[in-house]
Design goal:
five-stranded parallel beta sheet, binds flavin-adenine dinucleotide, 13 helices, 30% helix, nine-stranded mixed beta sheet, FAD/NAD(P)-binding domain, alpha/beta
């Protein structure tokens, strides 16, 4: 239905989905499968894919095996490797759009600037930065926690005259060959970029603030017989997925909590370091001083060898300033570069909303989340009825596939949306008491995890509040999401 008001017509749907990454597209698929077809997906980019559209830096790949880092309702028997590259994952996302016929639902170049709940009519109103207007009975916020890249707060960053590239906005037109290049950051993206860049550039300088724990990765090309097997016997692929799921669940024991397995994982990582780096001083520079699991564990076989190439230098002195020609480190040396690559991560939505979200009685999510984002089961927020978050507060896994968690969120949202539409509800709003009780328990459990064991990471706010990770096994998270407890919600009937 389209009704005309003022300068932009209001486009209406039963469900508005913001974002066309894995979450937004998966949401549309599950809604369609549940018989809900009146959907609009708003995407600010010019194509689908989110993370995998944006992160096309050299070496970009998943660090959870592809058979697990994919949707169970959209299996792909043709993954070319254990850990597929960014282009292949993006093609998988495009194939979901084709196979589930999602194109008619998606509107591109619609950058949502704000959404507001209209209590009287039980509608969410959304506005884009160009003033286009939408309204829907329910809204799914699938804008992704890692979709806004962030540059570090280095003094003089704007004075630097050379080329600047953020890992999530790679400039493929810029020729790196023969150039002097710096990489700032040594996290999950950096350890994938550095082995590729060192082969292309004249000289590479890597600025490390904190060394991460690095585990070896078994990344094999998939033989043709294996693809044929998965094509003819989908059950075999399902079993493989389940086996991978089980292995990753076991890793929770090492990575989430301190246990004897934590010490084993640290030992394996130190052996990997000792095996790959012979120089004692360099090994010292690369040895973490925090517990494994506290920050994201890095999975790579190529990173340490790349750092030891003759055209690569690791600098562990802190950066104090960027100058017009390069980077000055604390010991006073100015290092000059043609190009600086920032593998410095994202502006993670752990304290504040991604855009203006106004709920009941003018409540503002950004204000409420300033001290740290909170939700009920990561998906509903009290005072913001008929709104569902994907990858919301405390839904992050440290040891398993984000898509496993996401699938359970999608199915939970379908149940909520079905309830709103079938019972003709004006509002389905989670009770504040249920949300508080949920969060008290989450924070109590988080206090005992490796994430909260003292290191500084993007999982925590500056005050040390953990608004990102789920302190349990994926199996526990899935069990929690499989139950839609109506008694935890306040239902307002229309009429
Ligand atoms: C480099 C990298 C590697 C990763 N590897 C793994 C991995 O191996 N395993 C794993 O489990 N997880 C991994 N992750 C986490 C990953 O982000 C998630 O697995 C998943 O891709 C997130 O999907 P999403 O749809 O929630 O968000 P996104 O993929 O970020 O999609 C969000 C979409 O919303 C759009 N959007 C944002 N704001 C607006 C707005 N205001 N209006 C309209 N549209 C908007 C964006 O343009 C984007 O298309 C990785 C993340 C990164 C950055």
């Amino acid at each position: 239905m389209t009704m005309t008001t003022q300068e932009h017509p209001v486009q209406s749907a039963d469900v508005l989905i913001i974002g066309a990454g894995f979450a937004g597209l998966g949401m549309a698929i599950r809604l369609k499968q549940a018989g809900i077809h009146n959907i609009i997906i708003l995407e600010r980019g010019t194509q689908v894919g989110g993370t995998w559209r944006d992160n096309q830096y050299p070496g970009a790949a998943c660090d959870i095996p592809s058979n697990l880092y994919s949707y169970s309702f959209a299996p792909n028997p043709d993954w070319s490797r254990s850990y597929s590259g960014s282009a292949e994952i993006l093609e998988y996302i495009h194939s979901m759009v084709r196979d589930f016929e999602l194109h008619p639902f998606i509107q591109f170049e619609k950058n949502v600037a704000g959404i507001e709940f209209d209590e009287q009519h039980g509608l969410w109103h959304a506005t884009t930065d160009k003033g286009e207007r939408y309204s829907a009975r329910a809204t799914v916020l699938a804008s992704g926690p890692l979709s806004n890249c962030s540059l570090p707060n280095i003094p003089g960053i704007n004075d630097y005259q050379g080329k600047k590239i953020h890992s999530a906005r790679w400039d493929h037109a810029y020729d790196l060959s023969g150039k002097k290049v710096a990489v700032v950051g040594t996290g999950a993206s950096a350890v994938q970029i550095i082995p590729e860049l060192v082969q292309q550039v004249d000289h590479l300088t890597v600025f490390q603030r904190t060394p991460g724990w690095v585990l070896p990765r078994v990344d094999l090309a998939t033989p043709e017989w294996n693809k044929a097997l998965f094509r003819t016997l989908p059950g075999a692929q399902y079993m493989t997925r389940q086996a991978l799921y089980g292995v990753h669940e076991a890793m929770a024991l090492a990575l989430i909590w301190r246990s004897p397995l934590t010490a084993v994982a640290e030992r394996v990582a130190l052996m990997h370091l000792r095996h790959q780096v012979k120089d004692r001083w360099m090994r010292r520079q690369l040895t973490p001083d925090f517990r494994i699991g506290c920050k994201r564990v890095l999975m790579t076989n190529d990173y340490y060898p790349a750092l030891q190439q003759p055209n690569c230098k690791l600098i562990t002195w802190p950066i104090v300033q960027m100058t017009p020609k390069g980077i000055r480190s604390v010991e006073g040396i100015e290092h000059q570069f043609d190009c600086v690559v920032f593998a410095t991560g994202f502006d993670v939505g752990k304290a504040g909303a991604p855009f203006s979200v106004k709920g009941l009685n003018g409540r503002d999510l950004d204000d409420e989340w300033q001290i740290g984002a909170q939700a009920y089961k990561s998906i509903s927020v009290s005072g913001y009825p008929n709104l569902f978050l994907t990858f919301g507060p405390n839904s992050g896994p440290g040891h398993n596939s984000a898509l496993v968690y996401m699938e359970s969120q999608l199915d939970y949202a379908v149940k909520g949306i079905q309830k709103i539409l079938q019972a003709d509800l004006l509002a389905l709003d989670v009770n504040a008491s249920a949300q508080s009780a949920f969060n008290r328990n989450i924070q109590k459990r988080l206090a005992k995890t490796n994430w909260n064991s003292g290191c500084k990471s993007w999982y925590l706010t500056d005050d040390g509040f953990n608004a990102t990770m789920y302190p349990g096994f994926a199996t526990e998270y899935l069990a929690q999401m499989s139950q839609f407890k109506e008694k935890d919600y306040h239902l307002v009937q229309a009429g």
